[in-house]
Amino acid sequence: MSAALLTTREGLEASLIVGIVLAYLAKTDNREHMRVVWAGTAAAILVSIVTGALLFFTVGELEGRSEQIFEGIAMFSAVAVLTWMIFWMRRQAVSIKQDLEARIQGAIAAGSAIGLASVVFFAVLREGWETALFLFAISESSTPGVTAIGAVIGLAIAITLGVLLYRGSRALNLRQFFTATGILLIVFAAGLLAHGIHEFQEAGLLPMTVEHVWDTNAVIDEDTTFGEFMTTLFGYNGNPSLLEVVAWATYLVTALVFFLRPLVDWRPRRAATPAEQA
Prior knowledge:
The chain is mainly α. 75% of the residues lie in helices and 0% in strands. The relative contact order is 0.16.
């Protein structure tokens, strides 16, 4: 589920970028440049796959404390990138189309095929690298098969939505979509943060404090199918340490407040004065 959510979100962002570029080329009668865009997209996907493979194979050679430290660093990196991505997309969603079209126009005016290809290459590559990092982080709390299936489902959904949007479909409200997925990803990131702290505690880099605040494995066992689902999507831990619980709750509350603040008026409403009512 978490892999599908992440790849749907990342894949849709990449699809939107490619779709904006292709739509602009079609609108301005520059269809002959589309093959350059597809070449840049394919190159970015290839580099992302190679980078992801190197990441998975590299950690596979590590054992013991080195593996725990590497996994902890990967978890913290994923949380940082995921948080940045969520807030960046919310801030840039309004102007991303205008920015891309301006860069495309500049590349066409300069007659630079490399410049045009780089517009989509670096944008798609960023999404691909983020996806590789997130899938690696997910794989540490799930099985490779489940992660792979979720990733494929998410990419299929993202491509389908991207095609519908490119063809002018208004069935998907992008603002509502990114708001809903943003909230889910914040919950997921909180779980990654707690998992990273657990790895660092196991490696002896962070103090253990209270080792087990509670133990709910008798109710929801982490090793069951439902337990794995709760672990990968919500960061469920049947017997977390105090530091894990504090970090999870602090991140979750702080991130949600900042994310939802532009959508909700938190300020108390002031009663109108008689002069204002008149």
